[in-house]
Structure formats: C-alpha cells, structure tokens
Amino acid sequence: MKKYILFLLTITLLMFSCSKSDDPIPVVEDPAITLKDTKTDFTNEGGVKSISFETNKSWTAKSDASWCTLSPTSGAASAKSITITVAANDTYDDRDCTVTISVAGLSKSITVTQGESLGLLVSDDDKTHKLTNDATTIEVEVKANVEFTVEISDEWITDVTTRGLSSTILKFDIAENTSYDNREGTITIKQTGGDLESIITVYQSQQNAIILSEKTHDISSESQTLEVELQTNVDFEVIIVHEAQSWVSYTETRALTTKTMVLNISENESSDERVARVFIKDKATALQDTVIIKQYGKGVYFVKQMGTLGEMLNQTQKDTITSMIIKGEINKADFGVISSRIPNLEYLDLTDVKCEGDRIPTMAFAYNKSITTMLFPESVRIVGEMAFEDNSGLKTLNLPNGLKIIERQAFYNCSGLTGSLYLPNSLTEIGEGAFVKCTGLTGSLVIPEGVSIIENTVFYQCSGFTGLELPSSLTTIGYRAFGSCSGFTGSLELPKGLTEIEER
Predict the structure, then answer these.
(1) pTM over 0.70
(2) Cβ neighbours around 223 below 10 Å, total
C-alpha cells in the first residue's frame, strides 16, 4: 500500500514539472495614454470639436466645467476620440476648463479655453436722460472690452470728456433749450471697426412760455365774444382783474392744447371807454402774460379786420346811426358801407383809422348827401379820384398833416364846403379838377411848397377865394387852373421858377 501511494506522488510531481516548462508566462502591460493635442481653443460663440487619442485599456473622461460637455465619457481601448461641446460665452471675460482622460490610475489633461464676449455696455439708468431746458452736464458710464468711438446727433450736445481708451465715464454738455418745443438727441457709442453699439437718448424739455399773438384788443361797445390766440406749453389759468369781472368772463371749455381763449364781453352802455386786464398765468410757476381789453363807449365802432364793418352792424343800427367814431382798419368795402348803407349818418370821425393803402378810395363818398362833418384819418396820404365828387352835404374839410396827393376831381362840386381851405405842407400833387365848383370856400388860398404843377381846372369856379399865394417850387399853371375865381383881390406874386401859364 505504501509503495502504491509513493508511486502516485511521483507521477503527480513529474506531470506538474512538465506543465510549467511547456506553457508561456503571461505579461502584464502598464496603462498608456497618448494625446495628439493637449489644448484646444473656442471662440465666445462656442462649438463642437473632436479630440483624438490612443490608449491600451478602457478609459473614462470628465470635464470640470458645466459649460464644457463630453461625449462619450468612457470607452474601451478601441475608442480613439471624444467630442467636446462648448456653450456660448455670454460673459465679458475669457474662461477655461480641464478635460481629464483616465486609464487605470493614469490621467492626462486637455485644456479648453474660450474667448470672452465682446462687450460695449451702457447701464439702463444711463441710456435715457430726461432733462429740463436748463444747460447741464451729464455723465455716462461705459463698460467695454473693445475700442469705441462716440457719435452725437445734435450740436446742442457736446462731448467734453478727455479720456484714454480705458476711461469708462463720459461727460456731455447739454446746451440750454431756448425753444418752445421739447427736443430729442442721441449719443451713439460704437465699436471701432465693429458692429457693437449702444445708444443713449437725451430728452430735453422746452422753455415754458405763454405767447399771445395780440396783447391789446380794442373793441366796440356791443356785447360780444373775444377770441384771444395764444401759444403755450404749460397748464394755464385765466385771471380777470376784479374791477372788470362784471363785464369780462371766461369759461374754460378746451384742453391744454387750446390755441384760442374765448372771453365773453358785456355791452358797454355808457359813452365812456373802459379797460380790462386779463392775466394768463402758468399754474406751476410765476410765468404769465397779460391781455389788455379796451372797450369803447357807445357810438365808437372798432373794425378789427378790414371789410367787416357791414357784418358788425345790424340793420337797425345802419338805419338809425347819425354819428360814428370808427377805429381800427378799413378798406373800400367798409367805405361803401359808410357812404351808401347808413343813410342818416351826419358826423364821421376817422381820425384813428388805418386805411388800406393809406388812401381814401376812388368815389368813396361820391354823391353822398348826408355826411356834413368828416374828420380824416391821420394816416391817410392819398385822396383818391372823385372820392367826394358831388358830395353836397359836406360842410367842413380838415385835410390831415402828412397828406401828399389829392387826385383828379377828388372834391369836384362839393358845393356845401364853407370856410378856409387848409392844404397841408406835405402836399406835393393836386390833380386835375380837384376843387371845381367849390364855391363856398373862402379866404386866402395858399398853395404849399413842394407843389410844382397846378393841373388844369384845379380851382375852376372857386369864386369865394379872396387871396392867392403861390409856392417858389411852382413851374406850371394849367388850363383854367383858376378860371372864374372872381374873388381874388390885392397883389399876386409869380414865383421866379414859373415857366408856363396855360390858357385862361
């Protein structure tokens, strides 16, 4: 039995000894990683890149930043690359992260860098500036990582900053706004050679104002509404002085944008003129302006617009008026109303009237029989042709200083005129037949210096004149200029410059 066991052990040892000597011994490899690139760059816009490598064992990969992701993150030795995806960089600083590839305790790194976002920033608080109309200086903070320039839209904004490229505070002078409108300008901060820009808007308020197109209003005695045109950019109130509140009133019916203020005027039943002051005042400040209203007493008619006298008078007035004082401005149409549509008019005062063209129109009072007294406008310079022809009612004639021309037949056959004829020294021309048959004129007739020609028949049949004085400027006496002037007495001196005396 013992021999048998020993035999088995010997066989086993021999078998084991033969096996070790015939089979190869396995070799254990060290882990290895070979990277083709250890650094990769991305722009601020981000993107995707593939990184190749070699390894002899299974591997893992990881990124240390959330904005940098990998795919795949692990693999066998047969995998040769990973994909790196980088998100856009919205910050204004560059950034980097590390991608690590590991194999059995061995690691190698890839550095991923990304550029910053190009920035040119103005804070929201600085993008809009709302200013009063006063001159001022504004400051604007600019955050930029690019070179920039400044563009200004309007000349009332001036860049006063002295700065290098690194400066972030810009200063701008804003001029005073002396206009009556708000205004808007822009300041554009632009990247030099690039597309980045930031726009600053400057709003400047207007100069507050209350502007009246007409500050003084002369009106007739009738009750009426008075429209006062104004331009304003403020919230205003109307203040009527206490003593005028009984006859001037204002009812607010329009919004702030109103350009017309309507005042109600009561009738002036007295013959005396009265004056009111109305203040247009800014509710918020001391800014104000004043309207002066002058209302004439009864019998005084103020024509604000030429050609409107007929509209001012009702038929009863036209039928019954015997005396008128007219002020304002009148034209040929108004003269027509006075002469032909007010049949009982006897007294007419035009002293303060402004006539169209500074003239009494042609035939303005021709054939009028009712007007006995007329006071001429002080501003008139010309009496037109036949202006008073056959006006037999006119008894007095007071020609104004400043009158220059009396045209042809202006006072022809004004047989009712009496007393002396005063010809103003400003007169330079007396037209043909101007005073024919004015037989009631008396006294000495003095022709003023400046008249060089006495036209034909100027004073024909003016038999009431008793004396005649001719000017040294006279050169010509026309046909029948003094024909049938039978009342002249005394001596007559002919001027040295007179060269022609025509027939009769």
Answers:
(1) no
(2) 12
